């Protein structure tokens, strides 16, 4: 069965209620006939109002993070139950910025991923190497560790999404070539096949998350193992609609 492409925006720490609602209202008619799943992962404080703005459309509102505890003394964190209260389905876990700035590790990614799955959320698990790791030929070694540790204990890999985001291509304007992205994502799929089963790997959606934009989306999406994109800066403007409609 063919994998349905999935284009998700990651607003990061951007937008206000007013600007977010305005963008969603403008996007709704532009993406209504999309042949892919469409989501916008937004700051937690914006989820209620963005959910209202997207109501009745094919745009799902997702979250940018989730804590692994059900509740407790974790100041500033958001639980899975809180997200579910607002109908959130998708949640980004282990984004490189969380790893770089906030001490996220493969172990905490694993705990958050398991919690998301236990609560019926679909985790978008981010993996990827730095520029020095790529230049030193360590890409596959880094991905092996991230996948082996990050997905430990997961029973059904088809219930999650993988986002390959080469750290050197996030927010830098640099993008892996179509061939580089395809080669690495094909390796990730092979690794998932080893960790779970080949049939499972063929069903898992794997996004590319390194500066996909309106200009390069067609070439990237034409690759056989690339099933969508985790879009950063381009999801803050109407370019997002062009990416969503990459096949038109």
Q: What is the rounded Rg? A: 17 Å
Average predicted local confidence, pLDDT: 96
**Main β-sheet: number of strands, strand sense, barrel status?**
4 strands, parallel
Q: Would you count the extended β strands for me? A: 8
**Secondary structure tally, helices:** 11
> SS-based structural class?
alpha/beta
Gross morphology: globular
Question: What is the helical fraction, as a range of percent?
Answer: 40-55%
List low-pLDDT spans. none
Question: Secondary-structure blueprint of this entry?
Answer:
Blueprint: E1 6-10, H1 17-31, E2 37-42, H2 47-54, E3 59-63, H3 80-85, E4 90-93, H4 96-102, H5 106-118, E5 122-127, H6 131-135, H7 139-150, E6 161-164, H8 178-195, H9 198-203, E7 205-208, H10 217-221, E8 228-231, H11 239-244
Parallel strand pairs: 1-2, 1-8, 2-3, 4-5, 5-6, 6-7
Describe the structure.
With 248 residues, the chain is α/β, with parallel strands linked by helices. Helices cover 41% and strands 15% of the residues. The chain has eleven helices and eight strands. It has helices at residues 17-31, 47-54, 80-85, 96-102, 106-118, 131-135, 139-150, 178-195, 198-203, 217-221, 239-244, and strands at 6-10, 37-42, 59-63, 90-93, 122-127, 161-164, 205-208, 228-231. Helix 7 (139-150) packs across helix 8 (178-195). The relative contact order is 0.16. The model has no long low-confidence stretch (mean pLDDT 96).
